[in-house]
Write a structure and sequence with these properties.
Elements: H1 9-37, H2 41-56
Helix pairs in contact: 1-2
Length: 57
């Protein structure tokens, strides 16, 4: 990598999008895991609430 190359806003947008997709995927995995474990409804609703809080900002 060229040491003089600057990071552009397009590069930062790509990184941001990639991290958002990764975070969303992990949240969905957490929801699926909570459903598979068939725990109390509180754990499932807590995971859903966290997901909504995370992506409402």
């Amino acid at each position: 990598m060229d040491p003089n190359k600057e990071v552009t806003s397009a590069d930062l947008a790509k990184i941001s999008s990639s991290l958002a997709i990764l975070g969303y995927s992990i949240s969905l995995l957490a929801l699926e895991r909570a459903d598979q474990e068939k725990q109390k409804k509180e754990s499932m609703s807590a995971a859903i609430n966290y997901l909504f809080k995370r992506f409402r900002r």
